[in-house]
Amino acid sequence: MSTKNSIEEILSGYKGIGLTEVQKASLLRRKDRKYIFSLSKLASILEELKDSYDVLEIGNNRVQNYQTKYFDTPKLDMYHMHHRGMLNRHKIRFRKYNSSELVFLEVKRKDSRGVTTKKRLKIENGNSVILSKEEEFLSSFTPYGNEKINPALENNFNRITLVHRNQKERITLDYHLSFSKPGKSDSLKLFGVAIAEIKFQNRLSGTVFVHVLRKNKIPPRRFSKYCTGMAMLNPDLKQNLFKMKIKEVNKLNNENL
Q: Between the CA of residue 61 and those of 8, 11, 18, 146, 158, what are the distances in Å?
């Protein structure tokens, strides 16, 4: 059985929920923890979670496809702030949720306490272009304006969204990642890698998800799709602090080729 069929078969055993239920656990102000592991482990992890979590379902689809366009300054200030581990930093992106055809301009900010806050603006015309309304939004929540930022990276991936039945906790499981430079057709494919993120408020204790990953010997890792994609597509960029992570990602990816 292929990985795709195995994942979809296991997800069919979950209780499906809609966007309304997921939004109750949207956690736009939250803490998060990420994990990187081999895609070959995803099916068994999903099997162990199904009694405690429900899955987002849109249009009979329990796996959603996302497209993202990231923006940065001409000097890639946002990338370099992340590389240096600076807090009070931002990410700016357009994200298209293909199952619902919705497009949002999203701003993520990580503050000095490590708390991530996300603001987003629904794009009515569906175009990933910064116009006056979008510029006003960015000026309200970031130090960057339209004249200061440009498209820097595009990516595409599949996502499974799980919501805990009894506590305010949301999990995203991303796989089949690909990255490309804006306007370029060639892409970097990381189809053997899965990325999990648990989003929570205050403390993280007693969660089934963390227990299952510990049992599978998957430790938490800091990980940024934007920075990883930029570093791998642009080897001349300063990336000393990302080298071990890139090596790990390549190892996981090559194991599944």
A: 9, 10, 11, 35, 11
| Structure confidence by residue, pLDDT tens digits, 2-23 | 677 799 999 999 999 998 888 7
pLDDT band at 49 (very low <50, low <70, confident <90, very high): very high
pLDDT in tens, 98-136: 887 889 999 999 888 777 888 999 998 777 888 889 999
pLDDT above 70 covers what percent of the chain?
93
At residue 29, the pLDDT reads: 56
Q: What is the CA radius of gyration of the chain?
A: 18
Q: H-type helices in the chain, by residue range?
A: 3-11, 19-23, 42-49, 77-83, 132-141, 208-215, 225-233, 243-255
Which DSSP state fits 168? S
Q: Are 17 and 57 in contact (CB under 8 A)?
A: yes
107 within 8 A of 141, measured Cβ to Cβ: yes
Name the residue type at position 243: K
Counting other chains too, the contacts that 108-111 makes at CB distance below 8 Å and 24 or more residues apart are 109/141, 109/142, 111/87
Q: Name, in order, each residue with C-beta under 8 angstroms of 125's C-beta and a sequence gap of 6 or more.
A: none
CB 121 within 8 A of CB 133: yes
Query: Model-level pTM greater than 0.85?
Result: yes
How far is Cα 123 from Cα 133, in angstroms, rounded to an integer? 9
Alpha-carbon span 139 to 256, nearest angstrom: 43
Q: What are the boundaries of each domain within the chain?
A: 3-255
In CATH, what is the architecture of 3-255?
Answer: Beta Barrel (2.40)
Judged on CB neighbours under 10 Å (0-12, 13-18, 19+), 224 is middle
